[in-house]
């Protein structure tokens, strides 16, 4: 019979690690799922699988930091994505296995730079004019939309769409430069 | 970074990419670490932008307008979830928490698919566009016996080898395609012109409508423009009313003579005002070469279907007819003549449609057309001067057998009860047919070969056998050549009337032939396709009522025409 006190401590540790690293796992899995289809399903499966195998992680061989945990969960997520895509390859746009493996390897290797990337995004967004920033964020967030901005600025949504892609490119270029500088 | 690939990456993230484009992206990404990194970075950045809780900067936080309280609640829940989870003690709670973790993620704002942003109108579960008019048009699929749907769905292509095809989108945009051409319906607000020419009429509510070509995007911010694409993908855009924003496609932006570049100047569109035009080559030879070249706009290069609300393009008053109800054909050479750059007639608007009672209906204009440039009659602005109009009246000149010029109307119903007026001039020694009405039977107003005389004739099948037919004809007196003459015919099987008048004088009578009304195309200047009786002379005006006018109205109409063209004074 297990000790209830130990179980509580173990659960707390798992939840804490998961909470600290969930955004890393989410971005990792999002990169492997074109369009983000099935992302929530994959994350749910990943979390449950991680919980089942948490004892493996707790062994000394796998380390114990949040970064180690993130890397470990991402490996689980990789196989969950693979499994998900194989099940749905007939009716969805999915990456080929070979490319998926290359992307997963690359993404796992870049897990450590996610914080730097976040900082770079923040810096680059601050450099952007407020109107451009709002337009860029409008397609990604609730409460605002291209249609709404189009109405306010008397522009056509499709024109704004082109601007959005230009802003995305500008932001990506800025982030890449910032990362290179760092 | 190749902008074409970058666009494909954005489409993948937005979940708007097509399977074929996705394959292209995958092909490019396989083994290309740089491109894979670019893709992963784009995904990460978009994920960061999607998650309000990740951006800590206050500057960024205040940029968004007031958000619905639902979102604030969701974000707040996400943070409190962590604290609550820390005090959870049971495995069951963990499991439940894991499930709610996923549920909460789903409620946090996710990227809105671009298509959902752009297409604000409710989804219409039918074709995005439909054929509203065909003029001497052959669709490629019909060459092989396949039937063509009158409606088109996203991804469907319309390929025509000749003629004109007018397609109306659900948002009211009317695109006139001139064969040979191929147009692909992309969305409710965009179409891809692979090759050929088109003109687009865009109602104000549909501004933002887009024609895409291999080298440019043409975004309508105005009423009328034309686009052409040649066999190598070079694009020309001409603006006739309003404005159009021209934006190079990714293939132009991204490549120049095989090299990859990044030039922000290229990503900015070129805004064209009315009567401006630009050429966009499919490839640039040099890096410093501009992606577009301005040229003069040329309306005559683009054919369009005349709209119901088109303004009459002439200050010359139309004939003061005593009766405009029940007109089926009314063509005046001073009104609504669409011409090419050689002043040849592409289309001639039917004023009868303008005067009909169903102005609010959406039926297409039964104009007269000639899509073949080599068979278009010549529009002449100043012919046959008269005292009150020393410059003369406009007229349309038909070149006879040598040129084989004629115009054909869209199908209009005609029966065995009508009145026709033609203001025309004849040439000496040139026979031919001025007007042929094609219903169940056919009716012609012709000129005899030997003398400038009018002949009115009616032909109908005697019984069900096509080889047995009746013909009834009246030959008029000889007229002066190269002078405008009013030819009129009163025809009614019911009233047993078939009379031919020239300049208001009765020339003769014959027995009318009976036939039920039938829709048919009607021909000006020839007796039919393949006919040798091409008219040689000019037509200034042509009127057909769908019933035989009573004597008073016939006289009034005759007087109005004689007075207008000053025919009674000579």
UniProtKB/TrEMBL annotation, chain A:
InterPro entries: RNA_pol_sigma-70-like, RNA_pol_sigma-70_dom, RNA_pol_sigma70_ECF_RHOBA, RNA_pol_sigma70_r2, RNA_pol_sigma_r2. Residues 22-90 form the RNA polymerase sigma-70 region domain. Keywords: Sigma factor, Transcription, Transcription regulation. Gene3D superfamilies: 1.10.1740.10. The keyword Transcription regulation applies. This is Sigma-70 family RNA polymerase sigma factor. The lineage of its organism: Bacteria, Pseudomonadati, Planctomycetota, Planctomycetia, Pirellulales.
UniProtKB/TrEMBL annotation, chain B:
The chain crosses the membrane at residues 81-102. It comes from the Bacteria. It holds the Pfam family Laminin_G_3. Keywords: Membrane, Transmembrane, Transmembrane helix. This is LamG domain-containing protein. It comes from Aporhodopirellula aestuarii.
